[in-house]
C-alpha cells in the first residue's frame, strides 16, 4: 500500500465502490446556462410533492428573541463565555491571515491550532466568528459586536488583497496538494469553519460584508472543484474528498438558501459524499471503519439538503443514521465513538474498544448538529 493509500484507507470505501456511486453523477460539469437549467429543474421536481417542501419546516426561534433569566445558572454561564470571548485580540486572530495575504502583521499570533506552522490554522477563527455572532444575537452587548465587526473587516482586507476570493490563514498551495491527492491536513475543514462563521455573522448579526465574503469564497471553491472535474474526472474529485472536508455541503446549502443561486446548490451537491450517503440510503449499518469526524458533518449537510430541496431521500438518510448511531454506536451516556483514530467500530461491540480517552468532544459536537 502506498503512503497516499494508507493515509486515506480509513476514510472511504474501496475504489470500486466509489466508482459505482460516482457513475451516477455527471462525468463533466455542465456549462453555463445548461448547468443552472439542469439543477433548477432538479430542485423544482424535488419540491413538487408539496408535503416535502422546505416551506413547511418548523422554524426555530431566533436568538434575537431569546434572553436568559439573570438569576439562572445558564445566564451566569453565558456571562462567563462572554468574558472569555472578549479576551481575544483581533490582531492576533488574523495574524496568519495577514501573513498569507502579504499584509503587515501586528501583535503576536496565537498558538495551539492557530500556530503559524499548523496546517489547521484559521479554523479557530471560524469558530470565533460563529460564537461571537451567536453571543451578540443573544445579548446585544456592544463590546462583542464591535470586536466581531472589527474581525470581519480585517478578514475582508485580507481577501481583497488576494483578489481571487481566497480567504485562509494558510497559502493556497495546500489545495494544490489536496487536489493532487498528496498528504495535507484537511484544508476544506478549515475553509468550512470560516464560511460557516461568516454566514453566522450575516444571518445572526446582519453583516452584509460577511455575506459578500462568503459568496466570494464559494466562487473560489467553485473554480477549484471545476478545475479538478474538467481536467481530470468526477472520480478524482470524489477521491480528493477522502480528506476531512468538514461540513462544506452544509455551508453551501445554507448559502444557497440565502442567495438562491443555483451555482451554490450545485457545488453543495458536489460535496455530498455518495459512497457514504449511499450506504445510508440503502439502510446498511456498515459504517465500521469510517472516520467519524469526516462523515458526521456530511450527514448534517444531507439533512440541510432535505430542508433546501425537499428531497425525501435525504430525510431518510438522516433518520437512518441517527437510528444506527443511537442503537449500535453510542455509550449509555449518550456519547459515541472511542478515540481510537476517530473510527467507528463494529456495531454493538463498544465494550471491546474502551480506552482512557473515549467520547471525544469533536464527534460529540458534530452529533449535536444532527437533527
UniProtKB/TrEMBL annotation:
Stretches assigned to coiled coil: none
Stored Pfam families: Beta-AFase-like_GH127_cat
InterPro entries cross-referenced by the UniProt entry: 6-hairpin_glycosidase_sf, Beta-AFase-like_GH127_cat
Domain Non-reducing end beta-L-arabinofuranosidase-like GH127 catalytic: start-end pairs: 65-370
PANTHER family to which the protein is assigned, alphabetical: PROLINE-TRNA LIGASE (DUF1680)
Designated name of the protein: Non-reducing end beta-L-arabinofuranosidase-like GH127 catalytic domain-containing protein
Organism: Eucalyptus globulus (Tasmanian blue gum)
Phylogenetic placement of the source organism: Eukaryota, Viridiplantae, Streptophyta, Embryophyta, Tracheophyta
Amino acid at each position: 500500500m502506498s503512503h497516499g493509500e494508507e493515509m486515506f484507507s480509513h476514510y472511504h470505501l474501496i475504489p470500486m465502490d466509489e466508482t459505482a456511486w460516482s457513475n451516477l453523477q455527471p462525468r463533466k460539469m455542465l456549462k453555463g446556462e445548461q448547468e443552472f437549467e439542469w439543477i433548477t429543474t432538479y430542485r423544482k421536481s424535488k419540491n413538487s410533492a408539496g408535503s416535502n417542501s422546505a416551506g413547511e419546516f418548523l422554524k426555530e426561534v431566533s436568538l434575537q428573541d431569546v434572553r436568559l433569566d439573570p438569576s439562572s445558572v445558564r445566564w451566569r454561564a453565558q456571562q462567563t463565555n462572554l468574558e472569555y470571548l472578549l479576551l481575544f485580540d483581533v490582531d492576533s486572530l488574523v495574524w496568519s491571515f495577514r501573513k498569507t495575504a502579504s499584509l503587515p502583521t501586528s501583535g503576536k499570533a496565537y498558538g495551539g491550532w492557530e500556530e503559524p506552522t499548523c496546517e489547521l490554522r484559521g479554523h479557530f477563527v471560524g469558530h470565533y466568528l460563529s460564537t461571537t455572532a451567536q453571543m451578540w444575537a443573544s445579548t446585544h452587548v456592544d463590546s462583542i459586536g464591535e470586536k466581531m465587526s472589527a474581525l470581519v473587516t480585517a478578514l475582508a482586507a485580507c481577501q481583497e488583497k488576494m483578489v481571487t476570493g481566497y480567504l485562509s490563514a494558510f497559502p493556497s498551495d495546500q489545495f494544490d496538494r489536496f487536489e493532487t491527492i498528496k498528504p495535507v491536513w484537511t484544508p476544506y475543514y478549515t475553509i468550512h469553519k470560516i464560511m460557516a462563521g461568516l454566514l453566522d455573522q450575516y444571518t445572526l448579526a446582519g453583516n452584509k460584508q460577511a455575506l459578500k465574503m462568503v459568496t466570494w469564497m464559494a466562487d473560489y471553491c467553485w473554480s477549484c472543484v471545476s478545475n479538478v472535474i474538467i481536467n481530470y474526472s468526477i472520480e478524482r474529485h470524489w477521491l480528493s474528498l477522502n480528506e476531512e472536508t468538514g461540513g462544506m455541503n452544509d455551508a453551501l446549502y445554507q448559502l444557497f438558501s440565502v442567495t438562491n443561486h443555483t451555482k451554490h446548490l450545485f457545488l453543495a451537491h458536489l460535496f455530498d459524499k455518495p459512497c457514504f450517503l449511499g450506504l445510508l440510503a440503502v439502510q446498511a449499518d456498515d459504517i465500521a471503519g469510517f472516520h467519524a469526524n469526516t462523515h458526521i458533518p456530511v450527514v448534517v449537510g444531507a439533512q440541510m439538503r432535505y430542508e433546501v430541496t425537499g428531497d425525501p431521500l435525504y430525510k431518510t438518510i438522516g433518520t437512518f443514521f441517527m437510528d444506527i448511531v443511537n442503537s449500535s454506536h453510542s455509550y449509555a451516556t449518550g456519547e459515541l465513538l472511542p478515540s481510537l483514530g476517530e473510527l467507528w467500530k463494529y456495531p454493538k461491540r463498544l465494550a471491546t474498544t474502551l480506552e482512557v480517552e473515549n467520547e471525544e468532544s469533536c464527534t460529540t459536537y458534530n452529533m449535536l448538529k444532527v437533527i
